[in-house]
């Protein structure tokens, strides 16, 4: 695909005259900032970035690209590390200015524009004592995380993010604006819930919200390697209990400023402090290197796993699924591999390997064929984020990531072929989406 011509940029600007959409191109003052992404690996020289402000503007841009056969992509939170929200030479439809959120406490529903982050959602719902099942980190986009399925701290109680979705307004491939729900465009609504990035541009989501108390329990803890067997033991107990109010992440990260690999846990409990303390007693009673657990608002809790302040640099997320029981030997082997990478390569301090235990009973209550999300099963996600700076290490980092993920997959004889064992939002491969609906 040739680089977008300046004539096309001018024509697009003319077509959007009278609207509030902004067309940014090479030479514009904020071009460099507009192509920046959470990971530097995803920075591509776009032909133009169109900062849209309304659904009809999105439709206008789609029609323009279609007429002139110009490639386009959509950017919401910009947190994917596959490059799928950036374009070399094509048009990026930036949803960054479409970040409004409206909460209706009477119907317990929340209307979210396609470019909002979970942070914005939490701040809108909190005054009404409500929360939406969002991702476990609040700085990521509602757009990308919802369309791929979506797991969050409230998944144990309410299921996936898409299980809360009541309707979605979309601009589809021919530029028309449709609203998909259980009552209209049902096939599109099915596809949007799990494979959504390929079916249109979501400009407004309507979610079901749930009551949340003023404070919940949670936070990060760090431990030395000697505590690993007890933490793995707790993970197996956690799995047996399937308490819907809970969430437990464990794995490895790097402790600052010393830079040594540590065992990390992230605890979550939607309940009173005493209940949370009793639930997590085997973890809370361990001697720790750091303990940042507390009763906090849901919005604060949701921001604790953010990789903030967003460091510059190159990042890659990949993952797979894991079915308990967890064994100390496997987790220990992964520790050694992770630690070796951290010691061998410079400035990898924001990296982490995390086993994400969110009770799945509610997730598997929805039959697998009911939505396009094929990752519903009696297992958990494992996410591996590698962060580095030297572009010369890109291939090496991806190879190391594949090696670690393969080790987990090889140990998973029990996940049957009925399950996809892959979560779209943690897909490590570059996935180029092009909108394909209507067929
Ligand atoms: C630190 C961190 C923590 C994470 N935690 C979780 C988690 O707890 N649970 C979870 O489920 N996932 C999690 N993820 C994965 C996350 O869901 C994906 O990276 C997701 O793609 C990010 O969405 P985004 O809108 O920020 O990214 P973007 O890069 O903007 O978009 C990702 C993809 O979605 C498409 N897209 C985005 N918005 C729209 C839209 N409105 N309409 C059509 N297409 C759109 C883009 O074109 C692109 O293909 C995490 C990621 C990170 C980096």
Automatic annotation (TrEMBL):
Coiled coil regions in record: none
Gene3D superfamilies: 3.30.465.10, 3.40.462.20, Uridine Diphospho-n-acetylenolpyruvylglucosamine Reductase, domain 2
Xref: Pfam families: FAD_binding_4 (PF01565)
GO MF term (any one): oxidoreductase activity
Cofactor(s) the record lists: FAD
Keyword presence, Flavoprotein: yes
Keyword terms, alphabetized: FAD, Flavoprotein, Oxidoreductase
Keyword check for Flavoprotein: yes
FAD-binding PCMH-type domain ranges (all copies): 42-212
Similarity comment text for this entry: Belongs to the oxygen-dependent FAD-linked oxidoreductase family.
Full protein name: FAD-binding domain-containing protein
């Amino acid at each position: 695909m040739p680089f977008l011509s300046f004539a096309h940029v001018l024509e697009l600007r003319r077509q959007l005259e009278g609207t509030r959409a902004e067309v940014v191109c090479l030479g514009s003052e904020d071009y460099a900032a507009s192509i920046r992404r959470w990971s530097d690996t995803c920075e591509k020289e776009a032909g133009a970035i169109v900062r849209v402000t309304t659904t009809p503007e999105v439709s206008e841009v789609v029609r323009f690209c279609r007429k002139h056969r110009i490639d386009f992509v959509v950017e919401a939170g910009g947190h994917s590390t596959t490059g799928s929200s950036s374009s070399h030479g094509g048009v990026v439809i930036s949803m960054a200015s479409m970040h409004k959120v409206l909460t209706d406490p009477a119907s317990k529903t929340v209307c979210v524009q396609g470019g909002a982050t979970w942070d914005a959602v939490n701040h809108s719902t909190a005054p009404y004592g409500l929360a939406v099942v969002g991702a476990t980190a609040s700085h990521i986009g509602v757009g990308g995380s919802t369309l791929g399925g979506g797991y969050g701290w409230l998944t144990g109680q309410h299921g996936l993010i898409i299980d809360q979705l009541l309707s979605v307004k979309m601009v589809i491939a021919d530029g028309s604006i449709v609203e998909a729900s259980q009552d209209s465009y049902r096939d599109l609504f099915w596809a949007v819930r799990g494979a959504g990035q390929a079916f249109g541009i979501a400009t407004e989501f309507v979610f079901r919200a749930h009551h949340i108390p003023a404070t919940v329990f949670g936070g990060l803890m760090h431990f030395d390697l000697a505590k690993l067997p007890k933490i793995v033991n707790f993970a197996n107990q956690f799995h047996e209990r399937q308490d819907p109010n809970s969430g437990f992440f464990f794995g490895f990260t790097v402790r600052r400023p010393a830079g040594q690999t540590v065992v990390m846990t992230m605890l979550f409990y939607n309940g009173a402090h005493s209940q949370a303390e009793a639930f997590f007693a085997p973890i809370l009673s361990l001697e720790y290197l750091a303990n940042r657990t507390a009763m906090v608002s849901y919005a604060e809790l949701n921001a604790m796993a953010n990789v903030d302040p967003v460091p510059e640099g190159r990042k890659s997320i990949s993952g797979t699924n894991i079915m308990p029981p967890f064994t100390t030997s496997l987790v220990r082997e992964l520790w050694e591999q992770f630690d070796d990478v951290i010691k061998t390569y410079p400035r990898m301090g924001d990296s982490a390997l995390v086993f994400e235990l969110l009770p799945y009973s509610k997730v598997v209550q929805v039959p697998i064929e009911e939505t396009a999300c094929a990752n519903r099963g009696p297992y958990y996600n494992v996410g591996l984020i590698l962060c580095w700076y030297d572009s010369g290490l890109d291939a090496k980092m991806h190879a190391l990531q594949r090696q670690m993920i393969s080790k987990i997959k090889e140990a998973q004889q029990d996940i049957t072929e009925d399950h996809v064992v892959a979560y779209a939002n943690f897909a490590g491969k570059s996935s180029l989406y092009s909108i394909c609906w209507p067929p």
